[in-house]
Please model this.
Amino acid sequence: MFRDKLHIFPIFIVIYVPASFFITYGIAVGNGHVVPGFPYISDTGTKEPESCVFGQLLNIGAVIALVVFYIRYQQIATYQSDCPVRRITKCNKAALILGWIAAFGISLVGNFQETNVLVVHLIGAFLAFFIGWVYCCLQTYLSYKLPEIPGSSRNLRSARFIICVLTFIFMIVILVAGKFAMEENPRKSDKKIPIGLSPGEAGYPAYLTSTLSEWIIAFLICMYVATFTPEFKYFEMIKPKITFRQKCVLSGIAPSQQSKTNEVMTIENGGENFADRRSACDTGSLPPESCVFGQLLNIGAVIVSAVFYIRYKQVETYQRDCPVRSITNVNRVALALGLMAAFGISLVGNFQDENVVVVHLIGAFLAFVIGAFYCCLQTYLSFKLPDIPGSSRKLILARLIICVLDFSFMITILIASRLANEDKPKDLKPRCWTSDKPGYAAHLTSTISEWIIAFLTCLYVATFTPEFKHFELIKPKIIFREITRNGVVPELESNKEPKAVTMRADEASVKY
Model:
C-alpha cells in the first residue's frame, strides 16, 4: 500500500506527534488538571483520562518512528551497497540503534507518568530527547558524507545542521530554567492543585521558559524527521520475501515425504493487597503497576502484530503456485482480525478499567472475542492446508480444542459475571472483592475464566512454532527510482525516462 509512498511516514510524524500533544493538552485543560498556557508536555498526560489518551497516542507514534528510522537505515545501506565505506556503515547502524532507543523512550514517557514512576519517566524523556538528538546528529553527519544521495541538497543538509544546533541550545535552556523554576515554585509540594505555575507566581518566567523550550525541542525533532521526505521520494520498499526451507506443494506430497527433499522454494511477495484471584485487567488498574502493565502490553501488541503478519505471509506464499480464492480471502480476513486483536491489547494496556471503562471494554472485546475468531479462521486454514510444512494432525486438533475451550470459557465469563453483579454490594470495586462478600464465588469463576482465556490465546499463538521453523523471512529490499552518482550529469538524467534502479550488495544497474 505504501511501498511507493514511503515519504508519507515522515510527514505523518510531523503532523501526528504535535497533534497528540494538543489533544491531551485540550483534555487536561478541560478537566482542570493543568494550568492553561504552556505546561510541560508530560504534565498534559499525567492524570486520568488524558493519561490514557497520551499513552495510546505516544505508543502509536513510537511504532511509526521505529518504521521511519528503519527505512532511513535501509536507504543509506542500499545507496552505498555497491561501494560500502566501513565508517559510514558503522555510523548508519549506530544511528539505527539510537533511533530505536529514542522511540522506546517515547513509549516509556507515555506509559510511566511523572506522578507515578518519576524515575522511569525521566529515563524515557532522556532517551526521547537526548538520544533522539544524538540520532539527528549522526544523520546530519551521514548527510554530509553522502551529499549525492537522491533528494539531498545543500539547503537540506544546512537545515539539519541548524536543527541539531538549536535542539542542543534549547536542551541547555530547559535544564537551567527548569532548575530555577523548581527552586522558586511556591507550591511544588501540594499535589492536589493543578500542575504548573500561573502568571504572577514566583518562578513563573523561568517555568515558562523551560516549558516552551521543551515544546520547541519536540517540534524540532519532528521537523528533523520530516526532512527525510525529499529523499524518501526517490525509492520504494519491496515487501519481505518468504523463503521455505523445504519444498511444499498443495497436494501429492505428505509431510513425512517433504523432509526427504532438500530443494528450496523461494517466492517473492508483493492499592489493597488481597490473596484472592482477580481479573487480569484489575492487576493493572492502579499505579505503578498500571504503568508496567501498559508498557508490557504495548510491546506485546507489536510482537503479536508481527507474528500475525508472518503467519499471513506464510499461508500466502505456500499456496501462491496454486491459489485458492476462498483460502486467500480467509487469510486476509484473518490478518485484519489479528491486527484488530493486537490493537485491542494496546487499548487494554493504556485505558485502565477504573479510568475509561468504555474504551477498556472495547479493547478487551477486540483482544478476546476478535482474537478468538482469528484463532478459528487459522484453524480453518490448518484443515484446508494440512500439508503445510510443520503441520500435523495433532497440531490441527490442538488448535480446534483451544478454539472450543476459548468460546466455552467466554460463555462462562458472561454467565458468571452477570450472576456476580446481581449479588455485588454497592460501590464495591472488583479488585477489592474478597471471599466474605456476596457473589464472590461467581466473581471468582469469571476472573479465573478470563485468565484461562488469556493463556489459551497465548498457547494458540505458540502452535505456530513448528510451522515457522520451516521458513525464513527475508528483510525488505530498497529499490531506487532514480540515482545520481559521480560522473552522471543530473541534467542528462532529467531528459530521459528512468526505470527502476535496483541496488544490491553485488550489483548496481541503471536502465533507460
